[in-house]
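thread: overnight batch results

M.L. [08:02]
morning all. the overnight job finished for the chain we discussed friday. pasting input first so we're all looking at the same thing
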Amino acid sequence: MQANSLNSRFQQIKSNKIFEIFVISIIVFSALVVGAKTYDIPPAVEQAVVVLDWLITVIFVIEITIRFLAEDRKSRFFRSPWNLFDTLIVLISIIPIENGELAVIGRLVRIFRVLRMVSIVPELRVLIVSLMKALPQLGYVMLLMFIIYYIYAAIGSTFFEEINPQLWSDVAVSMLTLFRVMTFEDWTDVMYETMTVYSLSWIYFLSFIFFTAFAFLNMVIGIVVSVMEKEHQALAIANGEDGSSELAAIRQELSELKALIKAQRGDLS
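M.L. [08:03]
and the structure it wrote out:
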């Protein structure tokens, strides 16, 4: 009974909105602490930053422990990839690797603590899961985009190499130039330079922009939005199932109450 009581208390703490906001605030504060280390600060302030960093690590250890103890089945806690990620980040943060070559790893781990925001906020988890599920479909779009890139780069290297070797010397350099065109970074300068020799080269650039910046990017956005809609629908269905079970329980209680009232009326009559 005492174990169940402690478990219920930890569950109340875990589901408390104030606790969630507090953890999010600590994550944001830890990001600020990591950012402060990148500046030239006085030794006293640097020592204070180190103390704050360890205090944040202790708070994260306590938070992970509360979440673990709040789980009814402890083995189920580690089945969640988010819990595994949070636990791994916190455990590595405990290891004192501030000196030597491993200090870089320690700093990187403290930077990645900001990613714990994803595991805390459910909406961010939906975005990440949607993106991961969209990757197989996005792979085919990226493959087709690479084919278009390669064709246009080969054409550009063939016709424009003599105009500007720095931009069109080979296929690889041409692909970098085309990426500049796709991002609209001074792409008109590149186009006007080629138009001095090939007056119709604007067709080459405009058609490439249409395929990449408009068609393919819209396809990527469409795939991600479609997967996100499916994820939200699945979440809504799950909530609907929970709601229907609660409604069924309420109806069962009402029917039992009606039966009890009828029985009492029968006894009175």
